[in-house]
Every structure is written in C-alpha cells, then in structure tokens.
Amino acid sequence: HTDFSNLTRNDFPSDFVFGTGTSAYQVEGGAAKGGRGLSVWDVFTLRTPGNILDGSNGNVAVDMYTKYKEDIKMMKSMGFDAYRFSISWPRILPGGKLCLGVNREGIDFYNDIINTLKDYKIEPYVTLFHWDTPYALEQEYGGFLSQDIVNDFRDFAELCFWEFGDRVKYWTTLNEPWTYCVNGYVSCKFPPGAASSPPPPPSPPPPPTSASNLNTTYTKTLLSSSLSDNWIATHIAVDDQPIKYNFIPYRGSETMQQSNLNLVPHRGAFHDNYYMTTYALSSGLESRVFNKTLIEKLGRSSINGFLTLSTPTKDVYTVGKNLLLAHAAAVQSYRTKFKAHQNGQIGITLVSCWFEPLNKDNEDDRKAAVRARDFMLGWFLEPVLSGRYPQNMIDNVSVDNLPQFEPDEVDLIKGSIDFLGLNYYTSFYASHDPDPNIANGYNRDQKLAIYQEKKVGNRKVKIGEVAGSDWLCIVPHGIYELLKEINQTYNNSTYNLPPIYITENGVDEKHDHRLTAYQACKDQQRIKYHQDHLGNILKAMNDKDGKVNIKGYFAWSFCDNFEWHVGYTSRFGIIYIDYMNHLRRHPKESATWFSKFLVKNQSGDNKGSGNNEPSAN
Ligand code: PNW
C-alpha cells in the first residue's frame, strides 16, 4: 500500500531515532566572530560572488551562531530526539593545523551547543567535515588534493574527540565525499572552482578540423587569449530563445571537443568584473561566470552565452582517495585512543540516488544503473567495507587516473565504519552509453546517461514531481529500492554492512519574494515527502525477504539555510527563515506535522508528553 498519511513514530521501533540536521557553513554565520579562520567557502563566495546564484554567502547565514539556544528549544518543542550538526574546522583550528593553535572560543561555542542539547535531552550527532576545508590548507597544499591533509584532519578529529567525546556518542567523519569531489573537481560548482586548479599549458592545442562550423574568429580569439584559467569556451545565446550552441571544452592537455546541447538563456547580469549568466538545462539551472578578461577580449555584446570550468580528470579521484584516507585515519584514532572510555560510535555519511534502468528489459541499461550507483555510493562504500574500489570503477577508470590503495591503506580503510549514514533525495533513470558526448573524465568514465524522464507511448513522463530544485524529482519508492539494493549487495559476510541511519532526506521550495512568511509556511508537498519516504523506509525495515537494519531518520533541514551554490534561493527547512525580518523563525506546516507525528504512545517505554507543538520565540 502507498498511503502513509496515518503513519506515526509509534509504527517504528521504540528506539528508532528522529532528528533534523544542519551544517556549519550553511547555518552558523558568525564568519568573522569568535576567532574563526577562513574556510574555502568564505573565499569562494566572497572573492567571486558570481559563483553563487544570488551572489550571497554564509557570512551571517541564519545566525545560528547567536540563535542556537532558541533553535534547540524549538527542536525540543517539536519532539525530536536528536540533532545532526557539523563542526566548522576553521572555527576551532583557524590555521587548519593543530600546531598553529586551538581557538578556545570556538571550542566553547560547540561545548555550549552540546550542553544545551544535553539539557533538553536531545542527542548530538556530530559531523566533523561538511565541506568547509580551512582555507589555509587549501593554500598550503591544495586541500584534499594532497595527502598532507590526512594528518591535519586526524589532528582536528582528535581535538574534537578529546574536547567533546565525553558527551558526543555519534560521530560521522565526512558528509558526502561524493558531492565534495564531483561539485568541487568535476562541475566546479563548489570550491576550489577552476581558479585554484593548475593553470593550462602555455599554448593550447589547435582545434580539431571537425570544429569547422564554429565561428572561427571567435575560436581564434579564445585560443590566443591569455586567460590563466582552464576555461571552457562557448558559443553564444540569443535573447530568450531556445538555441543550439557549441561549446569547446578545453581541458588541459586533452584535445578540444565540440558538442551540441539545447539551452534556454534564463537571465544574466553584468557585475563589476564579471558577467554572470544562468541558463536552463534539463538537468537544472546552471549559472556561469565570465571573467573580465574574457569580456574585454570579446566585447560585452557578444557575451550572452556561458562558459564553464574544468579540472584534470585525475583530480576528482585523488581527492576521493584522500577523503577516504582522512576518514580512516580519524576512525583509527577514535578506536585506538578514545572508544574504550568514551564508548561512542563512528561512521561516515554517503549520498546516493536510486538509479532505475531506463529500459528494464535491456541488460545494458540494467548494468548501467548498477554502474551509476557504484560511481556514486560504491566509490566510498565499497572501500570502507572491503578496502577496494567497486569492480565497475576498476574496469572503467584508467589506471593512471584512479589512485590505488597501498596494502597498509587497505587495512586502515577496510571495516572503518560502525554505522552508515545515508542521504537520499531523488532518483534518476540510467541507460548505457558507450561513448558519451561529455568532455569530462568522471562523467565519461561511467559510460552512461542519466535522465529524469522517459518516454511512455508518445509522451515524456517525469520520474517524479519536480520540487524547488530541478535536480530533485520526488521519488519516495526510490529510497525503498536503494535500501533493498544496498542490503542485497553489502549485507553479507563479504561486506558486513553495519546499521544504517538516514542522515538526510528532504525537499525544497524555491524562494519566492512575493510570499509573506505566513504564505511560505504552507508546505504540504514537504509533509507528503517525509510521510512517503518514512513509509518506504519502514517497508524496507519490515521486508519479508530481508529486513534492512535502519536505526534513525534525520529530516534535512531543521531550517532554511545557505544552499551552497544556489545561495538562499532554495529552502529545505521545516522551519522558515524570514531573511528580510531579523532572521525570524516560523514553523512551516511540516514542522507542525512532525510535532504530531513524533508524539509517543502513552504505553511502555514509548511514553511521552503527548503535546509537542513547535513554537517560535
Ligand atoms: C546535500 N543528490 O547534498 C548536502 O549534504 C546538504 O548540505 C545540502 O543542503 C542538501 O543536500 C540539499 O541540497 C546533496 O545527488 C548532494 O541527490 C547530492 C544529492 C543530494 C543532496
């Protein structure tokens, strides 16, 4: 059955944990307060505001830095058992390294959060790294591109265990290493962006002859330009018309390619030293930035297109490996030095979509769907369980690009989680494509294409209702399919899958400045989203042919917040933030729904107050 509207927490085991989540850079603000150092996100947003859809940053965010007490009180009033948040590495180690000094004010800040949670009997689930790498380490050795990060991360982790481990019993080392890798080193939507990637060789290779239908003047201009970044050049759009355009990915030493896509120019704006344009693609809204040099070369009038950035293929896999090593080093330290007396658990949080074969009757498509999962989830899950990359990655990524694990590294990484944190938002169709017309390595390596819709008869049908973000179609049964598949693949004596926590699940609406706070709090779509996903989780937990061991569920997010490269344009919160009015908190209808859902039966150990109500201060 698929009607989950009467579901309550009492349908779940009595020790099943319900919480909400946030991350430091997305909510704290206080960027220049209390001795905090810079993170890569400060520099990425402030130096190049065009990197962010609305030009915003997390300087103030939702000011949890000063409002955490009222927020924790609100969590309690809704009846949540747990709160998942992350520690800002540069807030407690402003120089990134232990030897450069500990910032006591930062430690005190997190101590007060943890103590407040404890006072309210809310269990802290702490993430050590939610993408805010200390900028000092990015400058010194390129952040996670360098294996030097492993010791610095271990030191940071040990400091956290030492300072907070008497009260924190659930640690996750990393949030979504996949997203950090792919957005940082493939699509360049996240720091470091292309600006920090190695400069291209002095003279780019000549264009292939097949590029004859490109505007040659334009092409020559770019080829002879002295742009210092390895930009991808572009053909130009025409006002508000869907057009065909060419783009020429320029990727270091690799040859230039040409491909065609459809795009709809969405909007664009000139800023002091760059031009930002947003265009609509089937995969979602994308924004791109032209720098001033390029504008001067081409003239303003010709710049109505876009330009995108890229880094060498190998980087993304190098960063992935260093993230795994850093995770494993922190876990080893916890287990050997802290676990015996602190008695907590440590795991990792990984994100995965569910990939459904575009054509279920086609074996190649079925294999492509598994490959898609292996390049997203398996990339990190297989190593932490077995010490190996998924065979699909070994088979499809060139040995020059995929860094191997040394025997001592295998020992360190294998078995390095006490629990798996899983983030699920959406699903895609996957189909086999032996020669994808994609410039960049990671996406080429997978030899597949993903879609959000498929043809049914003569119509194209979406995989699910589209939410605020175009990448997020609502597919509740996808979490059931994903959990079942994870269980089938990894819950055996070869892999020893530990218990799972759903550490993120949620949906957004677009910011709409025309709505009052009152109107914006009407979020029935979110209520249904959580109901339907919780129902599918419960179904996986009780499945006759193999129960999935799931221990908890964290709604993303406690409140609206800084949604990375799309800034404040996307709202994932169950609490609404009024950005125009002192960052006032307003419970959305989903917050009220959660407060009712979370009321415990008056019987047995499920006894509760029975009167949860979200309240704003
Ligand atoms: C998460 N996907 O990233 C992050 O952990 C949060 O910080 C963020 O606010 C939230 O999603 C909402 O975007 C995701 O491919 C990365 O389905 C990838 C996916 C989903 C979420």
From TrEMBL:
Coiled coil: none annotated. Keywords: Glycosidase, Hydrolase. Residues 197-209 have a biased composition (Pro residues). One of its GO terms (biological process) is carbohydrate metabolic process. One of its GO terms (molecular function) is beta-glucosidase activity. Signal peptide: none annotated. Residues 193-213 are annotated as: Disordered. Belongs to the glycosyl hydrolase 1 family. This is Beta-glucosidase 12-like. It comes from Sesamum indicum (Oriental sesame). The chain holds residues 14 to 630 of 870 of the full protein.
